[in-house]
Design brief:
Blueprint lengths: L4 H70 L1
Length: 75
């Protein structure tokens, strides 16, 4: 069998190029997904900190009110 070697070289080159492009697209997609995930985690963390801060302020306010009432009642 006499194969045209130039044809095989072209097919091999195109196949290698398609694999290269696929890897580049995969890396860019993963990079973008990573960025979006980091943003989502930061947003959720900020919401958590806000809720935690509100709860701490509420608890401190309730404790302060109880202390004041105890001082007034025991005076």
């Amino acid at each position: 069998m006499n194969f045209n070697r130039k044809g095989f070289t072209l097919i091999e080159s195109l196949f290698a190029f398609s694999v290269f492009i696929s890897v580049i697209v995969l890396l860019v997609s993963l990079y973008t997904l990573n960025g979006k995930t980091i943003q989502r985690i930061d947003k959720e963390y900020q919401e958590y900190i806000s809720i935690q801060s509100d709860l701490e302020q509420k608890i401190n306010l309730e404790e302060g009110i109880e202390q004041c009432l105890n001082k007034v009642l025991h005076s």
